[in-house]
């Protein structure tokens, strides 16, 4: 589940051994967030009622139509099927290869390893580091990069390890 990885990276990237302390908070957060595929929160589907959220007492939100629990389950199934069709259609369209030009800023995928000695966990590291400056293209799928702070050669990276950096 991608969300778990994202949340643990956000909460535990500075101290990896703190992840057990975050489980209750992350579980509560995920159970109260509307699922994109079903259109309902897990709490709502399991308990039949919307979870109360602190922010709703502070900011007026539009009134949401409340359905009977069995109707919610049926709607969630239909929403899930519809989302699956949309994902398949998106997947079936070919994605164009990313091309970078000299001067573009990019992030580089990290390949960190877990270490019991350092008490670090691979899943809690940031996925990318940077930004770095593209200096030139080498072949059709590799780029020479420089560190923008020192302007020193940083290395040659395959395009698969790069993603655009947006400021």
UniProtKB/TrEMBL annotation:
Domain Tf2-1-like SH3-like span(s) in chain numbering: 103-165
Pfam families, per the entry: SH3_Tf2-1 (PF24626)
Record-linked InterPro entries: RNaseH_sf, SH3_Tf2-1
Molecular functions per Gene Ontology: nucleic acid binding
Name of the molecule in the record: Tf2-1-like SH3-like domain-containing protein
